Amino acid sequence: MRFSQQLTALAAATLASANSITFVNQDATQRTLIFTPNAGLPQIEPVVVAGNDQTKVDFPEGWIGNAYSVSDGAPNVPGMLAEVTFQGWGGLTYFDVSAIVNPNDHDGVKEMFPTVEQDLLQKVTLSGCSIFPCDKAYYHPDDIQTVTTLESDITCTLGNPPNNAVARDAKTELVARKFVLGKF
Length: 184
Prior knowledge:
The longest helix is centred in the first third of the chain and has 15 residues, at 2-16. β6 (81-85) and β7 (93-98) form a beta hairpin. The protein is mostly beta strands. It has two helices and eleven strands; from the N terminus they run αβββββββββββα. The strands form two sheets. A six-stranded antiparallel β-sheet has the order 3-2-5-6-7-10, with no helix packed on it. The N and C termini lie far apart (75 Å).
């Protein structure tokens, strides 16, 4: 009896410390996820996510790296990056959506947030956006866009949901220069 209690506790501890990203494909395009670890860390094999489907990928303790998606039939060119550090400084998970490599990728990685926020209409801990360009992505090396969380299960959205505007269709609300300058 005591052994089964210890085994259950060990299993619960292992699950509690598991690192994962659930990739949610929001449209009908099949995508392949390509992972790039930091030097010396384990390689994660590419994963295919079917259109309008999701896939959970587990990562080892302390894994640092990024992922990008390649749409079915498209060349393997890095696009928006889903960057993550599990068990970083202070035991936190650090993540961001980076547009530094290819800011013109409007069909791959979109948003990242802790999976516990999946059902929230307004995400509290969010990097990236549904329409690019936006102010919640990392465009320059000195941008302050990295987000932290105590959670180790992250969700990353891919592609464009059916009723979502794309960048060229997004309406921009313009304001008069006097408002920008604070001269009313």
